[in-house]
Amino acid sequence: MGCSTAEGFGLSKTNKDFQERAQTSGTRVKIVFIEGWVVTLALVGDSRCILESAERRFYYLSADYRLECNEEERERIGL
């Protein structure tokens, strides 16, 4: 399972509309599909995504890409 073409188009259109209105704040989108034991995650933006299980365990599904917190990201962009 994953994003359909319609879902992908919806995210692209939302992003374009947001940019055309000259909004300067950040954008964060998370879509999670859970089918049986398979979790598919799509995200845009710099916020974290954490999954809590029925047993109250927490799983970090995304990385923090803020430059002040992620040395690998600073290296990637040449800082």
Question: What is this structure's SSE topology?
Answer:
Layout: H1 5-20, E1 29-35, E2 38-44, E3 50-52, E4 58-60, H2 71-76
Antiparallel strand pairs: 1-2, 3-4
Describe this structure in words.
By secondary structure, the protein is an alpha+beta fold. The chain has one domain. Helix content is 28%, strand content 25%. The chain is built from 2 helices and 4 strands, in the order H-E-E-E-E-H. It has helices at residues 5-20, 71-76, and strands spanning 29-35, 38-44, 50-52, 58-60. The strands form 2 sheets. A two-stranded antiparallel sheet has the order 1-2. A two-stranded antiparallel ribbon has the order 3-4. 0% of the residues are buried. The mean pLDDT is 74. Pfam families: PP2C.
Number of helix segments?
2
What is the string of helix and strand elements?
HEEEEH
The largest sheet is: 2 strands, antiparallel
Helical coverage, percent range:
25-40%
Radius of gyration: 15 Å
Cα shape: flat
Mean pLDDT: 74
Number of strands: 4
The low-pLDDT segments are none
Q: Give the N-terminus to C-terminus distance in angstroms.
A: 37 Å
SS-based structural class? alpha+beta
Number of domains: 1
Widest sheet, order of strands: 1-2
Strand content: 25-35%
Which features would summarize this protein structure in a list?
single chain; 79 residues; alpha+beta; two-stranded antiparallel sheet; 2 helices; PPM-type_phosphatase-like_dom; PPM-type-like_dom_sf; Phosphatase 2C
